Amino acid sequence: MIAPHLPRKSFGLWLLLAAALFGIASLAILEPFQDGVPRGGGDTATAVYSHSTLQTVIPYRAPRPGAGRLIVDVLDPDDKVLGQIDGHVTVNSGKGRWRESVKLAKSLSVDELVWHRLRHRFTYDGETAPTLEDTESISTILRMPVVRILGQQSYLSGGQAAVRVIVTDSKNEFIPGPSAVRIELPGPNPRVLFTGRLNSRGTTEAQFQMPPGLVGTFPLRYIADTPIGTAEFTEQVRLEDKVSVLLTTEKPIYQPGQSIHARALALDRANHAAAAARKLTFEVEDSRGNKVFKKATQTDKFGIASAEFDLADEVNLGTYHLRVRLGDDDSANTAELALNVERYVLPKFKVAVDFAGDGKPAKLFYRPGDHVTGTVRANYFFGKPVDRAEVSIKASGMDVAQFEAVSAQGKTDDEGAWRFDLKLPEYFAGRPLSHGTAAVLIEATVKDSAGHAETRGAP
After folding, report:
1. Using an 8 Å Cβ cutoff, are 284 and 309 in contact?
2. What does the pLDDT look like over 189-207, one tens digit per residue?
3. Residue 275, number of CB atoms within 10 A of its CB
4. Using one digit for the tens of pLDDT, what is the confidence trace for 245-271?
5. Cα dihedral sign for 59, 63, 64, 67?
6. With left for phi above 0 and alpha for psi between -120 and 50, is residue 415 left, alpha or beta?
7. pTM
8. CA distance 117 to 83
9. CA 67, CA 126: separation in Å to the nearest integer?
10. Are 336 and 247 a contacting pair, CB within 8 Å?
11. Torsions phi, psi of 155, nearest 5?
12. What 3-state class would DSSP assign to 366?
């Protein structure tokens, strides 16, 4: 806020007043706690439960100053007194607070305590009826620590992990005083992963290492020790194998009767070191889903394993799936590669697309709307030109999907050549990574008199 037209002295006083008000507001924010125990405020009682003792702050509004008897009871659901404070106190006129600690006759869990009630009665000396009395449910006044976690749901087995731990009370207010947090994997032999203190804002960044060799879903427990009690939070996390497998073959297409040479490289994702002496299983599944090959092996000291599979002369043609699994059969760490098994047919003739002509060099860059000219040439491998063959040519571009920009048809001459002239569209969608340019693919298909077709593309 800016106060205009104030004299310099008045403006300085105004700044001092604003600073004082800010200090008062800061005190008001910190006021509900003192030395880790709630102080209470307004007309609401507060309580903290620790070591079978209920520490309470009870506000009151006395009609007049004086001394009297104060009784504070903790009542169970059957109105049985489990703890009581009976003492002589002095009150001032108006608002005030009583700070009392009530020791319970038996230890209760927090889940049991919230069903109980807190009752207080104050009677002035010389009077028989209580002047001040009230009963409140402990569930509405009890302050408990609450743990909040900002972290992942999955981690690498044996890898580094980091989570943000935030601890506040049940009213989402800061808990002053020393607080600590512990993170562990529960079980028959609990593993403590992290111990540390919370900072002045009730939070910490916990960095720790997950145990190696554990794969699956496990509970991760967070335990916070604060001046107002202990809180626990458990969540399920997934520990994944930190080894990745790269599966390769020497080519993507095979013919019946050939051998498939597969190689797998296993690397640790945490430090990119070779995963040596790890069990690996190679499997091959044909195009109809039949498992035709399986080999169990292990990686060498360089993290490499290999396998060789011979295709029969008569096999199911189509797409084969080569898989490798690291570890046991139920392991989720796998890699897969698709291979085509087809009979290879040699091309009958060769097709070439030449953008040069009339003694000029080939032009490979154009503007939208320009004419793309060139020559399609087709020749058999023994040298004879493919004359009088049908030729179709098209230009394809890409925006959200591949589209055909322009096309043309013709026939080769006696020399097996056909000259084309394609007029490009007036607009193309440029690619930012290519500085606004757009790629166009020119594809020419030549079909000879025997009906055999060959296609050649050039960008």
Report:
1. yes
2. 889 999 999 998 899 999 9
3. 21
4. 999 999 989 999 999 999 999 988 777
5. negative
6. alpha
7. 0.49
8. 11
9. 10
10. yes
11. -140, 165
12. coil
